[in-house]
Amino acid sequence: MTGELSPIDKAKFVAARRAADFVEDGMRVGLGTGSTAAWLVRCLGEMVRQDGLKFKGVPTSTRTAELARDVGIEVISLDEARWLDLTIDGADEFDGDLNLIKGGGGALLQEKIVATASDRMVVIADIGKQVETLGAFPLPVEVIPFGWQTTQALIEETLISMDVLGRDTTLRMNGEAPFVTDEGNYILDLHLHRIGNARQLALVLNQMPGVVENGLFIDICDTVVLGFGDGRVELRDINEGTIEHDRLDFVESENLFTDLSD
Ligand SMILES: O=C[C@H](O)[C@H](O)[C@H](O)COP(=O)(O)O
């Protein structure tokens, strides 16, 4: 064990550990991207190795694919799977209707394709991701590199015409160079502060030439598994409301605490 986990990592871990119980033998499961999803992948890897769980995972990024293979999960492509029983992924924000902002790690495109191709999407999150109104987290928009500054200007003009509060947009960087997604595209982060009509904004953004996809996940998530630093978990379901409170022992598996890096 590398040391005591921070409360936020404990919260991520218990959410991921609880959500891993949704995975059953024979399922095809979308595996999300990010630090919370990495906990999930480690938990599932342990269930494969120790309990003989048999399922196929469809990763949403090269990072997740690498980690999944490392921990012993059988990885297949979305085209091989065609349709998935379940996707479990993290989020940057979720609201009371379980609408999401995703893409803080730049994987929103594959994540949205995979989640949309699933019977059920379960989001794993710590309480810090819960918001009343989406938008405090900058909204990632994946754009084609060709003419990206023109696309950026078009987005900014559209935000003005929609009377959106924040209109500042920035190109995501990776050091001195633009950040490049797994699909070879760029990310524009939209600093909106508050998104009044997320459904409308998602539709408008996706109609613009040059925009590949945006990080608003509307009506896609079915369940949020919320983790707390003291080991509590809470399940919120879009149809059934809050359906479960539980407490998990986050020291149940010490080897999961090593190699936290994502
Ligand atoms: O592109 C990245 C994904 O949408 C992540 O699921 C999201 O950014 C949340 O990541 P984390 O669990 O690290 O907060």
UniProtKB/TrEMBL annotation:
Enzyme class: isomerase
One matching Pfam family: Rib_5-P_isom_A
Catalytic residues, chain numbering: 111
Domain of life of the native organism: Bacteria
Entry keyword set: Isomerase
Reaction catalyzed: aldehydo-D-ribose 5-phosphate = D-ribulose 5-phosphate
Protein name: Ribose-5-phosphate isomerase A
